[in-house]
Amino acid sequence: MNFYYDLCILSFIFSTVYSNVQPTVTKDWLIEFHHHVEPDVAKLIAKRYAMVSRGPVLNDKHLYHFIDMKPTHPHKRKRRDVAQEQLIQQHELVKRAIHQIPHIRVKRGYRSAEKVKENFPQYQQPNDPYFQYQWYLKNVGQAGGKPRLDLNVEEAWALGYTGKNVTTAIMDDGLDYTHPDIMHNYNAAASYDFSSNDPYPYPRYTDDWFNSHGTRCAGEIAAARDNNICGVGVAYDSMVAGIRMLDQPFMTDLMEASSMAHEPNLIDIYSASWGPVDDGKTVDGPRHATMKAIVKGING
């Protein structure tokens, strides 16, 4: 299987960069008024409470940014000043006063391989022969690429996040469920062939392997680990279902909708790695029944 082709599901695992920042209460306040208040009026109200107004927030004169100018010992300012909030809200023009407390936001990024070894000394990387070429799982500069620019999945694996009990439906040109890297992770009960109207979504292979796209997608997601075959899936303990629906001359709204609504009680993720003709001129999207299927899936 070609694991470079179409990284259709892999981006659902991200790394986390931890921060040492400790939250403390700020001097910032969000003041919401019952109706529009001019900046000069807001300044007078702020002055009454030993604050200054920094002006409207989002160009909305209902909302203002106030700064508390009262000196406060840093060790005493650890919580929202609820009493002050209640005091300000007694003003006839003020609807709500919200003392701002920090929220920690950190950049997403990658960790070094050494960090994984350090934090998880028992972890062993997969021994599948093609894993060394799967740059999107572990990039060490293969083929001239930039090391460490990958999905950073090894730490997630070490923590035990391997996709267990999750089924992804591959809506595509079929799925070779007899492949030894997929067969044990194949969910037959959740599979169907809408191109041939039977429960066996096996691909119609051609001389140029044109109908192997769905199988490759399935391998990227759920190829078995440590079986000495090909590579490894990003969620190698998960299941895949095959929904064959692309192997015919045209698509109908009904077929597309039926595929997206197939066995929702058995399927957790629907992978649709396809779309309208990409010729720079065609603009198309879900039709009536397909859109209903999507909305129904979202709403449960």
Structure description:
The protein starts with 27 loop residues before the first strand and ends with a helix. It has seven helices and eight strands; from the N terminus they run βαββαβααββαβαβα. The model is unreliable at 1-23 (pLDDT under 50). Helix 5 (213-222) links the parallel strand 6 and strand 7. Helix 6 packs parallel to helix 7. The protein has two domains: 24-99, Alpha-Beta Plaits (2-Layer Sandwich); 131-276 and 284-299, Rossmann fold, CATH 3.40.50.200. Helix content is 20%, strand content 15%. The chain has helices at residues 39-48, 82-89, 113-119, 154-158, 213-222, 253-260, 288-299, and strands spanning 28-33, 51-57, 60-68, 94-99, 167-172, 192-193, 239-244, 269-271. It has 300 residues and is an alpha/beta fold. The radius of gyration is 27 Å and the shape is elongated.
- How does the helix and strand content classify structurally? alpha/beta
The helicity comes to 10-25%
Distance between the termini: 34 Å
CATH H-level superfamily title of the largest domain: Peptidase S8/S53 domain
How many structural units, i.e. domains? 2
- What is the strand tally? 8
The shape, in one word, is: elongated
- How does CATH name the architecture of the largest domain? 3-Layer(aba) Sandwich
Which runs of at least 5 residues are low in confidence (pLDDT < 50)?
1-23
Average the pLDDT over all residues and give the rounded result: 87
Strand order of the largest sheet: 2-3-1-4
Give the amount of beta strand, in percent: 15-25%
The CATH C-level class name of the largest domain:
Alpha Beta
Largest sheet: 4 strands, antiparallel
The helix/strand series, from N terminus to C terminus, equals: EHEEHEHHEEHEHEH
How large is the count of helical segments? 7
Quaternary state, please? Answer: single chain
Gyration radius (Cα, Å) is 27 Å
CATH level-3 fold name of the largest domain:
Rossmann fold
Pfam families: Peptidase_S8, S8_pro-domain
Organism: Rotaria socialis
Domain Peptidase S8 pro-domain: 29-108
Protein name: Neuroendocrine convertase 2
